[in-house]
Amino acid sequence: MDSHSILQVLLSSAAATTVMTLCSYAVSAAAREIYKEPILLAYILKQLHLNISSDAKNMLGWVLHYVIGLAFVTAYHLLWSHKILDATILSSIMLGAASGMLGIIGWIVLFKIVHQKPNIDYKGYYAQLFAVHVIFGVTAFLVYRLFL
To answer: Which of 12, 94, 99, 125 lies in the 20 to 30 Å Cα band around 140?
Structure first.
């Protein structure tokens, strides 16, 4: 990847992950549930009894959240730049939906490996997770196309 593409992916990823996170926080507030991915990641890390401070686990939750977003947008970039998919709003919706399904599977696995699960509405969490990933995909596309 050249420097232009790296910047394109980094900015698209940062914007998409931030917008997605803001949407998750809004849904959390409206539903009075903990649907905040970085907080849930920190919770999982705490349950794994890693030998790092609580603050480090919280920070690591945020870092992991943004790194996962970067991985998704890097995959989108590869699909778009190699012309496997056209960079369109429709493909971004499809990629967001696919990312949402992968996210749901990932969270199901994470929740299964910890002994004490968070007290959340799982169906509600997975529904909002799918929706915010579609928003993630569209946001990634809208920022990505600014560089085309």
So the answer is: 125
Q: Using an 8 Å Cβ cutoff, are 39 and 120 in contact?
A: no
Q: How far apart are CA 109 and CA 120, in angstroms?
A: 16
**Residue 142 structural domain:** 3-35+66-147
In the three-class reduction of DSSP (H, G, I as helix; E, B as strand; rest coil), residue 85 is classed as coil
**Cα separations in angstroms, 40 against 78, 83, 120, 134:** 29, 35, 10, 20
Residue 57 covered by a domain: no
**Contact of 11 with 143, CB cutoff 8 Å:** yes
Alpha-carbon distance of 3 to 16, in angstroms, equals: 20
Q: How many domains does the chain have?
A: 1
pTM: predicted TM-score of the whole model, two decimal places: 0.94
pLDDT > 90: percent of the chain = 97
